[in-house]
């Protein structure tokens, strides 16, 4: 099973982004998505931002993950 992580974009620099996921920040690849900006929410899989999502989508994904754990 593959699991994506929802996160908020903190900073974007030349194909990479710093994200905040539950208070933990890390660098990911952002080359797949166009026009990514700080404040956007993304779904991350294997260190790559694979989709832009809404803040509501992010909250729902976090809730589902909490239920599973």
Overview in brief:
The protein has 69 residues and is α+β, with helices and mostly antiparallel strands. 20% of the residues lie in helices and 46% in strands.
The CATH architecture: Roll
Main β sheet profile:
5 strands, antiparallel
**Could you say which structural class the secondary elements and strand pairing correspond to?**
alpha+beta
Computed over alpha carbons, the radius of gyration is 11 Å
Give the % helix. 10-25%
Mean pLDDT: 91
Strand order of the largest sheet: 3-2-1-4-5
Q: Helical stretch count?
A: 1
**Which residues sit in consecutive blocks of at least 5 with pLDDT less than 50?**
none
Strand content is over 45%
| Domain count | 1
Written as H for each helix and E for each strand, in order along the chain, the element string is EEEEEH
- CATH topology group: SH3 type barrels
Oligomer: single chain
Let me know the number of strands: 5
């Amino acid at each position: 099973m593959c699991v994506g992580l929802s996160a908020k974009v903190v900073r974007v620099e030349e194909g990479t982004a710093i994200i905040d996921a539950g208070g933990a920040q890390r660098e990911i690849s952002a080359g797949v998505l166009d026009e990514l900006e700080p404040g956007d929410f993304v779904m991350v899989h294997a260190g790559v931002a694979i989709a832009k999502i809404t803040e509501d989508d992010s909250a729902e994904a976090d809730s589902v993950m909490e239920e599973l754990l």
